[in-house]
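USER: My hope is that you can spare some time for a protein that puzzles me. I am handing you a single protein, as its sequence and its fold in token form. Walk me, if you will, through where the backbone shape changes along the chain. The protein I mean follows directly.
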Amino acid sequence: MNITGSIQSALLRSGSRPQVGMGLIEMLFSMVAIMVVLGIIVLVSNTLRAQTADADTRQTLRLLRASLLQYHETHNTWPSGPTSNALLVLLCDTAAKCAVQSVPIIMAQPRVPIVYDGFGHAVVYLPSRRDSPHPPDFASAGPDGYMGDSASQNDNQRLAATDNIYGIDTEEHLQ
């Protein structure tokens, strides 16, 4: 008889059986390891989701900005009015339509187009002001959904504006 066989027979004679399965410590350790792995997976997936939403938003604004610049190049003027009017003008214009066709536009009602950013918020058209040298632009409120105003005296407005994304931010990609 070998050594293993003699130990087994001694254990059986003493009335105790060999341990089968996991003990409490092993079970707890396994559960903690599984929870750590799941936590890492959730963290990575949330980060990827935020990066994808940001990339989608920037692509949408890039396309809207390109169509806006194309419209201005053709007509030597900018669309006026609210966001829905500017989108309709760009959709109906043959020169600007090629760039804006790739943008997912939802018609909420007849003749009321809406463009959503990657975060699920409506994109806003910012028409140019008469006293401003800046051209009009499209903007996203960013992940928090609040547009904000960086020039405001209100701290909450300035804070809300920190994550705004503007079409002009993507202009280096248009060159």
